[in-house]
Amino acid sequence: MSKPSMFSKDYKKEIKKRKRKMALLIIVPIIGLIIFLITDFNALKNSGISMKNGINSTLLNKSKDKQSSTVQVEKTPQVVKPQSDAEKTKVKKAEEALKAEAALKNEIFVASLSDGQKISIEFNVVAAEKTIKGVTDAKNISYDISPSKKSIVIQSKSNQDLLYVDVNKVSKDITKKTYESSKGEMFSKEGILKSHITYLWSITPKFIDEDNIAYVSELPWINDKGVKYIWKVNLKSNVHMQVKPASGMNITFGNITSKGLATFIDGKAVYVTSNGEVIE
User: Fold this and answer.
1) What pLDDT is recorded for position 124?
2) Which pick of 88, 156, 219, 267 has the fewest CB atoms within 10 Å?
3) For the chain, what are the domain ranges?
C-alpha cells in the first residue's frame, strides 16, 4: 500500500483511510484466527465427548454381552457325552452284580435221619450257585460243613448215625454199622448201644478236607473205661479207619489248618491228616 503525498490536499483523509485499511489488515486475521480456534476447540471438545460416549457405549455393550453369555450358558443344558465301550462294560457289570445280589435267595432241603428226625438244611443260592449255610433245627444233632460249603455231615445224638448231604441234595448214610475185632468177632452198633447205653460209637464228626471226615469213638475197645479214639471215614470209598496213635479221655476238634485238622487230646494240640495220621 503506497504512502499518500503530504502535498496533496486530501493528505489527511488519505492517511486516515490508510490507517483504517492497515487496522483492518491486522484485526481481520486476528478475528479469523480467534473464530477458527473457538470453532476447532468446540469441535475437539465435541469429538472428545463423542469418543468418551463411544468408549462408554462399547464397555456397556461388552458388559451386556458378558451377562447375556453367562445367562445363556446357565440356560444351556449340559451335553451328555456318549459312553465309551469300557464305560458301557463297567455299567453292565455293575447292573449284573446288582441283579445277582437281588437273585440271592435261600433254599431249604429237608433231610431225614435214620431215627426219624427231619432236618432242614439251608442253602444259599446266588446265580444258580449253591452253598450250605447251616441247619434251622439243630437240637438233637451235631453237624459240620465242608471247607467248600458244598456238603454237610450230620450226627444224630439219639442213635449216633452219620448222614452226609451235598448241595445237589444227595444224601447217604456213612455210619460204621459193625466192628470186627482182631479175633474176628463182629459187633453191631445197635447191639453195643443197647448193652452199653453211654457208649460212644461215632460222635462230633468234623471234615478233615472235602473227602475225609474225622469222628470220636470208643472203638476198638468195648468196655466202661471211657477211653476215646479218633476214627475217620473216606467219603469216596466209605472205608472207616482208626487214626493212630491217638487216644485220651477228652478229644475235641478245632479248625482245619495247613497241617491238618487241629485236635486237642486231653489239652494237647495235635493235627489229624487226611491219610489218617496224627502229627504234632
Assistant:
1) 94
2) 267
3) 10-69, 176-279
- Rounded distance between C-alpha atoms, residue 272 and residue 265, angstroms: 11
Q: What is the DSSP letter of 199?
A: -
The grid cell for 223 is 468196655
* Through-space distance between the first and last CA atoms of the chain, rounded to whole angstroms: 148
**Confidence (pLDDT) at 92:** 83
Q: Does the pTM of the predicted model rise above 0.70?
A: no
Q: Burial level of 166, CB count in 10 A (0-12/13-18/19+)?
A: middle
**C-alpha span between 277 and 280 (Å, rounded):** 10
The predicted-structure confidence for 51-79, as pLDDT tens digits, reads as follows 455 445 554 555 555 555 444 544 455 55
pLDDT at 16: 73
| Dist CA 1 CA 266 (whole Å) | 155
For residue 115, the 8-state DSSP code is: T
Neighbours of 187 (CB within 10 A): 16
Residue type, 227: V
Q: Which amino acid is at 197?
A: I
Cα distances (angstroms) measured from residue 139 to each of 119, 175, 192, 227: 10, 20, 24, 26
Cα gap 69→4, rounded to integer Å: 83
